[in-house]
């Protein structure tokens, strides 16, 4: 995890120092603050990785560089207009940007196209050189067209560039937003996992400078030029030598075979059935699919097509998460794949993934249920597997009376194991809020506890794998509404006194009005007034399934 945080920090520093050219540029960094940034990499939320990375990088930025900071999705859920330039481009903005990132909430949508356009306008891109760096872990969700925007900004700008970091995106997702960078002459950096991001940094930042080239020998007389072919490199990756081609995306990169090697800039790249034409010379070809990677050296000429086979030494697994045998795939089930050298956690419902040969552990979690299996996979092996979590569902609702009106407001649920411990308590399994709450639970006996304002009730129930259990809890309660002009607050007591002559307090509220749910029975309302007026006691009765209204003056 430390390596990943440093890698992301270096990636942002790369965009700020190499692609952007700090000395004369104004730069706005846009951070995706949508709800998906709560997803984890190696057990740590992506939003925390981003915050730490910004803090690390900005410590290295010269004080006179003008850096701004924008975010979207950080103030409202479901809003496509939630875009804010928090720190305008200015010198010495490192501390302000760090503070802003630390205070962000991550909860909204992904209007990345509109955010990039607003950042460009804030930089006056039609008048001055301008650069925008977008860090996003999701695709456009507000109807924008990032590809078209890239062309528009490039055509109308003086010298506009957009660089895009795809944080945790799949290869297919990356292709949908890479065009925003490519159409402006910027870079798209795929940061799918720690290893891929570190290699991107070695390629663009950390590679040592090549040794000075020797003085060239006198050029010989040019030989007659052979006819060039359209494509002189056709790579293809296989799970093993002579095996199958992966059924998921394969990403190819072609690097010069020089002092930098795969740590330098690639000369070409592409996906799946791709063909390249590169200048004659020596190259290193790298193929990546899922968590597997292979590389091979090759010498190319301009007049011959070279077909190159790369051995990933990997297996392909297809996992389908089902709550019960024969049930449909459940899209809420999280699938975690622990393979040699890493873990992939951002998978839900079903996933197809390529892993290095060796021991791989697949864990599926659905609600309170969990299932796992460890597989020893050989190179070339293809596994298509249903993972059965073994849970049933329970749907809970509370009713004021048996068969009466459903409670809709301030409904809180807690699910406990039915068996009590030695001290009489029960282990809590899970919780939820609101009517029609559903729970995925392993088979067994449970107790459903519900709180509706001042009322608490329980209902035992059992769960069977693959079946839905409706749990109806009867509150035996009604609703009290109080209006007391000039009041400061209220306390409600049970009407019956104990042997010491004291009443049990049930609930309380502040202000001139209150409404609460109470178990059917007799009570006393004590009203406090803001003036010198004495407290006033008002006896009342609550009937199950009925609403009682009191006016206190």
From TrEMBL:
Domain VWFA residues, every copy: 26-205
Pfam families per record: VWA_2
InterPro entries linked to this entry: CLCR (IPR051266), VWF_A (IPR002035), vWFA_dom_sf (IPR036465)
SMART domains: VWA (SM00327)
PANTHER family xref list: CALCIUM-ACTIVATED CHLORIDE CHANNEL REGULATOR, ZINC FINGER (C3HC4-TYPE RING FINGER) FAMILY PROTEIN
Protein's UniProt name: VWA domain-containing protein
């Amino acid at each position: 995890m430390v390596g990943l945080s440093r890698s992301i920090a270096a990636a942002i520093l790369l965009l700020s120092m190499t692609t952007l050219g700090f000395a004369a540029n104004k730069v706005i960094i846009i951070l995706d603050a949508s709800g998906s940034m709560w997803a984890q990499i190696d057990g740590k939320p992506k939003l925390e990785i981003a915050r730490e990375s910004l803090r690390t990088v900005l410590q290295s930025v010269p004080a006179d560089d003008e850096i701004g900071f924008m975010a979207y999705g950080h103030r409202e859920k479901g809003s496509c207009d939630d875009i804010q330039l928090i720190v305008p481009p200015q010198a010495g903005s490192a501390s302000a940007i760090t503070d802003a990132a630390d205070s962000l909430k991550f909860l909204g949508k992904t209007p990345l196209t509109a955010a990039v356009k607003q950042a460009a306008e804030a930089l006056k891109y039609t008048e001055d050189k301008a650069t925008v760096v977008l860090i996003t872990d999701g695709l456009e969700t507000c109807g924008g067209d990032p590809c078209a925007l890239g062309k528009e900004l490039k055509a109308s700008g003086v010298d506009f560039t957009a660089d895009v970091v795809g944080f945790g995106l799949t290869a297919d997702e990356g292709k949908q937003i890479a065009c925003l960078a490519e159409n402006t002459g910027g870079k798209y950096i795929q940061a799918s996992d720690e290893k891929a991001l570190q290699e991107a940094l070695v390629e663009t930042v950390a590679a040592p400078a090549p040794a000075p080239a020797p003085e060239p020998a006198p050029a010989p007389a040019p030989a007659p030029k052979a006819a060039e072919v359209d494509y002189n490199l056709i790579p293809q990756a296989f799970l093993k030598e002579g095996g199958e081609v992966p059924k998921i995306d394969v990403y190819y990169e072609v690097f010069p075979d020089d002092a930098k090697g795969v740590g330098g800039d690639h000369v070409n790249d592409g996906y799946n059935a791709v063909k390249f034409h590169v200048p004659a010379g020596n190259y290193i070809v790298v193929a990546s699919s899922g968590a597997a990677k292979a590389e091979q050296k090759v010498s190319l000429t301009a007049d011959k097509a070279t077909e190159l086979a790369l051995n990933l030494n990997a297996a392909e697994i297809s996992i389908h998460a089902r709550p019960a045998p024969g049930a449909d795939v459940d899209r809420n089930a999280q699938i975690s794949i622990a393979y040699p050298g890493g873990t992939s956690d951002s998978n839900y419902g079903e996933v197809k993934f390529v892993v290095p040969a060796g021991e791989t552990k697949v864990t599926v979690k659905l609600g309170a249920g969990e299932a796992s299996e460890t597989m020893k996979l050989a190179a070339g092996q293809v596994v298509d597997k249903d993972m059965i979590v073994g849970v049933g569902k329970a749907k809970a609702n509370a009713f004021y009376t048996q068969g009466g009106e459903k409670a809709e407001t301030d409904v809180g649920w807690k699910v406990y194991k039915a068996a009590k411990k030695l001290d009489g308590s029960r282990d809590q399994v899970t919780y939820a809020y609101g009517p029609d709450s559903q729970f995925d639970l392993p088979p067994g006996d449970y107790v459903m506890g519900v709180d509706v304002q001042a009322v608490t009730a329980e209902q035992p129930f059992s769960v069977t794998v693959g079946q839905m259990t409706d749990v109806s809890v009867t509150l035996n309660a009604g609703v009290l509404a109080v209006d007391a002009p000039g009041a400061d607050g209220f306390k409600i007591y049970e009407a019956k006194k104990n042997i010491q002559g004291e009443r049990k307090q049930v609930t309380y509220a502040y202000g001139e009005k209150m409404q609460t749910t109470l178990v059917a029975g007799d009570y006393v309302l004590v009203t406090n007034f803001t003036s010198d007026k004495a407290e006033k006691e008002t006896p009342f009765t609550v009937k199950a399934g009925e609403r009682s209204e009191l006016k206190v003056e």
